[in-house]
Amino acid sequence: MINYSVKIAVELKSFSGASPMNDLENAVGQYIVYHDVLKKTNPERILYLAVDEEAFEGIFSEPIGQLMLENHRLNLVAFHKLEEVIIEWIPSVNINK
């Protein structure tokens, strides 16, 4: 039996501001900073951006959000707030970089 162990770090973002685009810019900017710091300080961890179902079905279903996912800019986890379950798990192709 093979035992795979992957360590992750999760940055949770609410996307509750007046502008979903501004929320996306802030979240992606912070994600990049955290990713780079984590790569230096704790390189075995993989960073994920966690967003609720509303943000996932909102800004991440729009062309700009789809572009972020298609270009493998981030690892994304979408979750249902009330049920506290993951509804989408989207790793980047370049997951270990």
Q: What overall form do the CA principal axes indicate?
A: globular
Helix content: 25-40%
CATH class: Alpha Beta
Question: Strand order of the main beta sheet, please?
Answer: 1-2-3-4
Q: Give a count of the beta strands, DSSP E runs of length 2 or more.
A: 4
Euclidean distance between termini CA atoms: 27 Å
The average pLDDT value, as a whole number, equals: 89
> What is the N-to-C order of secondary-structure elements (H for helix, E for strand)?
EHEHHEE
> What's the architecture in CATH terms?
3-Layer(aba) Sandwich
- Describe the main β-sheet briefly: 4 strands, mixed
Q: How large is the count of helical segments?
A: 3
Q: Could you tell me the radius of gyration in angstroms?
A: 14 Å
Low-pLDDT runs: none
Alpha-beta content class: alpha/beta
Which strand-content bin applies to the residues?
A: 25-35%
Number of domains: 1
CATH topology call: Trna Endonuclease, Chain: A, domain 1
